[in-house]
Design goal:
Strand content: over 45%
Order of helices and strands: EEEEEEEEEEE
Distance between the termini: 40 Å
Radius of gyration: 13 Å
Helix content: under 10%
Largest sheet: 7 strands, mixed
Structural class: mainly beta
Number of helices: 0
């Protein structure tokens, strides 16, 4: 089975950091374009970053310079390092490969 499991979310104060993980099983992340999305309450799910199979990184403008993608091929896991978090980053975060979605991990930025 092809599966994605996102974890690492939590409650953090503004300006803080979190690292989200997306563990993949049933396929190798290196051979697929991988993406992070988020969905805030009452809003549509939005794309925030992509790790393309050819090692190209893309970031949505609001997270550029604050969020960084990486991956560990040995662990078959993709990471999203989030720094300088803002209240508007509060959302459920999902990792994605084409039509495969992880279950999401909640990030809440609040003082």
């Amino acid at each position: 089975d092809v599966q994605l499991q996102a974890y690492g979310g939590g409650l953090v104060q503004p300006g803080g950091s979190l690292r989200l993980s997306c563990a993949a099983s049933g396929f190798t992340i290196m051979t697929y374009d991988m993406r992070w999305f988020r969905q805030a309450p009452g809003k549509e799910r939005e794309w925030i970053a992509s790790f393309l199979s050819e090692d190209t990184l893309l970031h949505e403008n609001s997270v550029k310079g604050r969020f960084t993608l990486s991956r560990d091929t040995a662990k078959n896991t993709m990471y999203l390092q989030m720094n300088n978090l803002k209240p508007e980053d509060t959302a459920m975060y999902y990792c994605n490969r084409a039509n495969v979605w992880g279950q999401g991990t909640q990030v809440t930025v609040s003082s």
